[in-house]
Amino acid sequence: MRTMKELALQMDQTDPLACYRDEFYIKEKLLYLNGNSLGLMSKRAESTVLEVLDSWKQYGIDGWTQGKREWYTLSEKLGRKMAELVGAKPNEVIVTGSTTVNIHQLIASFYQPQARRYKIITDTLNFPSDIYALQSQVKLHGYDPEDALIQIESHDGLLIEEADIIAAMEDDVALIFLPSVYYRSGQLIDVAGITREAHKRGIKVGIDACHSAGVIPHAFHDWHVDFAVWCTYKYLNSGPGGVAALFVHEQHHGLEPGLAGWFGSDKEKQFDMLHQFEPASDVGAFQIGTPHILSLAPLMGSLEHFSEVGITNLRKKSLSLTEYMMDLIEERLVGHGFKIVNPRDKARRGGHVCLEHPDAARICKALKANEVVPDYRSPNMIRLAPIPLYTSYFDVYDAISRLKQIMDDQVYLQYPNQRDVVA
């Protein structure tokens, strides 16, 4: 019978994506399991950054319309490349802004409260920035968030039940805004089912796909999701602060953006410099300001990997990696107080494994001291994300082995059980 180590080595030998590992900058001996917060840099991303810097050097202002990749329509071109990852049509995705700015833009566009239909459904486990944006938008319309913002409660502090979301879809609800994957527990929700039930009741649906874009296939167009947002610096490896993306279903093209800006203009008329806004006829209308070209540059290279591999193949390996990791944890960390709290069901599991432990903060510090990079979430969660493009099965085996040694030797007790400034 094969040992878990032998199994890892065999799976690495037969892994069709193993060749992509060499395309990323990975420090020797370092086991990086935090790609769900910030993906590693690829050599292709580095190359396209240098390419854009050179075009700036060579062309100056003319880089907007000249060179290998002219900048003026770069956001649209990258949106078309990214559309397949989320199951969208090419004219439904634009790469622009930041996630929170895009949330504000789309809530401002789609939240059109009326006297008897003015509430927004979200939940208590959502990412804080999403909640702040929703509270702000509700206040701008003169409503009290305590009344207008419905936050679905979790029964266990970890998961949200879709049945509870559907039960809250009353006649006074105008909009639903939820994550596709919960950032803490890694729960994947049934976006298609929720959208279907919401539309039966005349409620629009928006999705935050930050923790699923690039690792889980979606079908936003076919599911008739009204709008979605996501970042690109996690699974899509665009670098710290990389430009975000948004989706607007083509049925809503022509909707006036809630926040108008000149890069949302019809490209043929933008430089007429008129004071009457004439928006683009597709998703481009929801851009606001000038594209951040130097921050778009690494995404040009990183998206090439996804075009070659395909999101279905990435999801297949991601599920296999997380399954192997959970099997290892259950076999090797018995008696050390860890609890796997992410869903085991593949249909409900995102791209990371989530562990609860009362000493989570100090364990994460000990892991980093032993060259394993995890992610800590208050008050007691350790997130471990094996990334299909650059994490090997042996990396997973090695990481759990180092964790076992830390626990066996009680090395973690040397560290304070509190988070650093950036957890």
What is the structure about, briefly put?
The chain has 423 residues and is of the alpha/beta class. The protein has helices at residues 4-13, 43-59, 74-82, 99-110, 128-140, 145-148, 162-167, 191-200, 220-223, 293-309, 311-332, 360-369, 393-408; strands at 31-32, 93-95, 119-123, 149-152, 173-179, 204-208, 227-230, 245-248, 339-340, 353-356, 372-373, 375-377, 381-384.
Question: What can you tell me about this protein's structure?
Answer:
The structure is a single chain. This protein is α/β, with parallel strands linked by helices and 423 residues long. The chain folds into two domains: 4-32 and 310-414, Alpha-Beta Complex (Aspartate Aminotransferase, domain 1), CATH 3.90.1150; 49-308, 3-Layer(aba) Sandwich (Aspartate Aminotransferase, domain 2). Helices cover 35% and strands 12% of the residues. It contains 13 helices and 13 strands. It has helices at 4-13, 43-59, 74-82, 99-110, 128-140, 145-148, 162-167, 191-200, 220-223, 293-309, 311-332, 360-369, 393-408, and strands at 31-32, 93-95, 119-123, 149-152, 173-179, 204-208, 227-230, 245-248, 339-340, 353-356, 372-373, 375-377, 381-384. The strands form three sheets. The chain has a seven-stranded mixed sheet with strand order 2-8-7-6-5-3-4, with helices on both faces. Strands 9-10-13-12 form a four-stranded antiparallel sheet, covered by helices on one side. The longest helix has 22 residues, at 311-332. It is globular. The model has no long low-confidence stretch (mean pLDDT 96). Pathway: Amino-acid degradation; L-kynurenine degradation; L-alanine and anthranilate from L-kynurenine: step 1/1; Cofactor biosynthesis; NAD(+) biosynthesis; quinolinate from L-kynurenine: step 2/3. Belongs to the kynureninase family. Homodimer.
